[in-house]
Structures are given as C-alpha cells and as structure tokens.
Specification:
about 140 residues, alpha+beta, Alpha-Beta Plaits, 3 strands, about 20% strand, signal, Sporulation protein
Amino acid sequence: MLKKLMLFACGWLAVVLVLTLLTGCGSGNNGATNTNGVKTQSYKADGYLGMTNTYPKIPGPHMASTYSNDANAMRQAIADLPGIKGTSITFNGSEAYVTIKVDSTLNQNEVPTLERQAASVLRFNFPRYTIHMKSSK
C-alpha cells in the first residue's frame, strides 16, 4: 500500500514538474509588455535580419533593377569626381562599358588617374557588372 502511494505521489510530482517547466520556458508574450515595461518587437523574416525594414534602400531579394536605373545610379556615383563633364554607359549583359567625358582643363597625364578612380567607384558600388572604362575629351 505504501509503495502504491509513493508511486502515485512520484507520478504527480513528475507531472507537476513537467507542467512547471513547460509554462516557465514559454515566455512568448507576443508583443505584450512584460513586467519591466519593455515591449518585445520583431522584424519580418527577410533574410537580412530586419535590415531592409530599418533602411529601405538596401537591395533585397525582391528588387528588380533595370539597365536604365543602374545607368542613372552609375552616373550619380561618379558625378562628384572632379574632372568629369559627362558619362555614356552601355550594357551588354553583365558588362558595363563606361565612357567618361573629361573636362578640357584636365591635364593629359591626369586622365588615367581619373579613369581608375571612376572605375574603382563603379566596381565597388556595382559588383554585378564588369566595368570597362575609357575616356574622351
């Protein structure tokens, strides 16, 4: 009789412990305020740990980029380099052929440096393209 009572008590104790563990570990308050007054927040699962929700200009998996958008962005990226009057950009698949129009006041020996600077900026900002750079006056 005593053995049965001990088994019964141990069984109930095990059930109570399991229930206590399950309820104690489940702290998902689904946006409710906890005891410290802090509200839990979460970001949509976008593969970038929520970064596209906090800074929307980061390219995401569902962004479509066209050649005209990329050409405009390339022009803006190198527009601030001193000595560039204009650009002409042509695409052939993943190849970008960029011709920069050099300011006439620029010395001839400074042109290769300007080409390398512009190519470096474009290669950094547009890694999906192979950049081919040349210049004209």
